[in-house]
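Budget justification aside, the reviewers requested a transparent look at the raw inputs and outputs of the sequence design task funded under Objective 1. We therefore reproduce one unedited record. The lines immediately below are the C-alpha cells for a 247-residue chain.
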C-alpha cells in the first residue's frame, strides 16, 4: 500500500512548511500528528469492529477473494480517497482522510481475524497482553515512534534513501502481484518477505517524516497524515503476520 502514498510524497512545492517560521512548522507538525492519531483510532476501531461482524468480514474477504480484480477495485478506491486528502479545501481533505482510514480498517480486518484464530486468541480481550493484535500494535508503535522521533531530531538528511526505497517497494509489490497468479505464492507467505516489508517501511518512515517537512505545504496536513498512516499500517500488518506464524 505504500504505492498509494506516492501522489503525496512526490509533490515538490515552494510554499512547504520548511520555509515557514519555527512556530509555524511546529503548528504544522502538531496538526499532522493530531490528524494521524485520530485516523489511527478510526482505522483500528473499524478493523476490530469488522473482524467481529460476520457479514462485514465476509464483504472484506470478498475483495481479495476476487483476486486481481478485487485488488484493482481496492486500489482505485484508495487512490480516490488519497486524492481527496490532497485538497487544500476543508473539510473535503478531512473527509477523505476519514474515509481512507475506515477503508484501511475494513481491509485489515481479515488479517486480524486470521491472526486471532491462528494464535487461539479469539476469546481474549484486546487489552490482554497475550493478544497478538495488541502485541503487534505496540511493537509497531515503538518502532514507528522511535524512527519518527529520530527523523525529526537528527541533522542527517534521508532524502538519499528515496530511490532505493522505491526500488525495494516495486520489487516486493511485484512479487505480491505474481503471487496472485500462483507464481511464488509460498515465498510470499514466508517470514523473509514480511521482514523485508518491515525494514522497507522503517526506511520509508525516516524518508517520509523528513519529506513532509521539506516538501509539504502547511495546508496538506491531511495528506501528510495519510502518508504516515500507510507506513504504519503496512509495518503493523507484516509484524502481525510474523507474530501469527506457528511454524
Amino acid at each position: 500500500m505504500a504505492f498509494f502514498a506516492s501522489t503525496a510524497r512526490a509533490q515538490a512545492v515552494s510554499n512547504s512548511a520548511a520555509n515557514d517560521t519555527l512556530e509555524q512548522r511546529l503548528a504544522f507538525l502538531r496538526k499532522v500528528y493530531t490528524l494521524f492519531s485520530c485516523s489511527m483510532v478510526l482505522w483500528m476501531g473499524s478493523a476490530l469492529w469488522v473482524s467481529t461482524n460476520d457479514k462485514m468480514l465476509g464483504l472484506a474477504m470478498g475483495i481479495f477473494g476476487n483476486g486481481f480484480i478485487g485488488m484493482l477495485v481496492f486500489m482505485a478506491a484508495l487512490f480516490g480517497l488519497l486524492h481527496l486528502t490532497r485538497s487544500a479545501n476543508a473539510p473535503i481533505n478531512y473527509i477523505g482522510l476519514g474515509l481512507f482510514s475506515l477503508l484501511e480498517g475494513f481491509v485489515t480486518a481479515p488479517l486480524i481475524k486470521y491472526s486471532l484464530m491462528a494464535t487461539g486468541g479469539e476469546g481474549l480481550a484486546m487489552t490482554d497482553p497475550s493478544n497478538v493484535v495488541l502485541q503487534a500494535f505496540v511493537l509497531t508503535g515503538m518502532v514507528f515512534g522511535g524512527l519518527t522521533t529520530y527523523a525529526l531530531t537528527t541533522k542527517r538528511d534521508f532524502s538519499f534513501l528515496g530511490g532505493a526505497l522505491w526500488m525495494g517497494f516495486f520489487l516486493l509489490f511485484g512479487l505480491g502481484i505474481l503471487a496472485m497468479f500462483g507464481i511464488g505464492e509460498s515465498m510470499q507467505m514466508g517470514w523473509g518477505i514480511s521482514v523485508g516489508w518491515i525494514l522497507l517501511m522503517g526506511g520509508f518512515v525516516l524518508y517520509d517524516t523528513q519529506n513532509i517537512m521539506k516538501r509539504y505545504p502547511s495546508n496538506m496536513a491531511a495528506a501528510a497524515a495519510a502518508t504516515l498512516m500507510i507506513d504504519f499500517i503496512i509495518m503493523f500488518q507484516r509484524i502481525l503476520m510474523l507474530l501469527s506464524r506457528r511454524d
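The CA atoms of residues 11 and 243 lie 36 Å apart. The longest helix spans residues 22-51. Computational costs for records of this kind are itemized in the attached budget.
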